[in-house]
Amino acid sequence: MDTLTVHAGNVTIGGESPIVVQTMCNTHTSDVEASVAQCVRLHEAGAQLIRLTVPSPAQVESLRQIRDILRQRGIDTPLVADVHFSSEIAIAAAEVVEKVRINPGNFHKDHEKAREQFARLVEVCKANGTAIRIGLNHGSLGERITNLYGNTPLAMKEAVMEWLDMCVENDFYNVVVSLKASNTFVMVEAYRLLAQEMQNKGVVFPLHLGVTEAGNGDAGRIKSAVGISALLSEGIGNTIRVSLTEDPANEIPVAQYLADRYDHRLNSTMVSLSLEGKKAVAIYDAPSRERLLMDFACDFGKRLLDKELDEVVLCGSYMEDGVKVCLDGSEYAEYLVDELMQAARRRFYRPEYIACPGCGRTMYNLESTFNEVKRRTAHLKGMVIAVMGCIVNGPGEMADADWGYVGEGNNKVSIYKGKTPVLRHVPEDEAIDKLLELIENA
Prior knowledge:
8-stranded parallel beta sheet; 14 helices; 42% helix; globular
């Protein structure tokens, strides 16, 4: 899909440029030393853009220090300020970094005031050569939009189009847009609607792709690959971030695989495919377990999402520690098929987890907590359980969840049943027990 070209520092997004790989720090931005160290590590791992959260005005100055230290060390990877709930912070950050991410759902409570503040932001971005990402999340659409369109892919498209129209009104085109959701079907449908609408209007902004709150491990990688690859295979998408509840450096190889595949630098290791109605039998000869997982997710994720197929059988082999491992009829092949079906939302064989990757707003050890929640709830087949780092997108993104665990800060947690908080200010060391107790007594 032909798009406008956007410049964020020395990185070009859209137009005829290759897919750009990015990630986000999970350090506290106020901890300048730790943030610099992580940025260096992410740069060395291949990140082309690095995002940091800016939750308060004080972090704008921290961000300036981080940028200056990195530039002094010869690292010119563009930095992105992630801003929620404060248009004034976004305006201040636009003077410091190469790109600012704003969320239409929480840029300003009053829509007319939001329009005024956005015009101010655009002027600062024009003066400083700063790009903007209009980054809408399914969970933070805002009451005005959901009242008009519901909590739907259409609502996501309509919400973003209002802001893209504002960009055109302000003669500002250095803009990337995203429509993220943790539900792969919702995410793919929203991006498709937006791509078509932009083409109809004749102004096509580059798209940032991601499945938000994808989780971790194999499940997080497969879920991300399903959503992102479905769109990249259609020519939709110019920059990607794989959101894993892990060390952010782990996101980059997954995103790089997707960029390499859909920029036609590598091909699938599937060597044979036979179709019988809506059943597929696929044979692979993969050089590693990781490669098999990604190839399989990309080869069949879109077909399952779009219901072109109902069943996939995985055969062939992959290499592990120099030994060829046979997949035919194996538990591992069955496991990958189950994970793929779950990621494409066709069949649920375990709980569905929604978990954010963590960032500088997270006030507890999200990764270890999420792993413990998974361990203790693994028997709850089909239940949707969310583990969220903070309230920015937490309650909204977990709107589809049966139960939610949301960090409050100060070693306290809120526990949600659906959209309703049923316990607040629960001590962190008691929160998982309380969550399980509530689930068992429901």
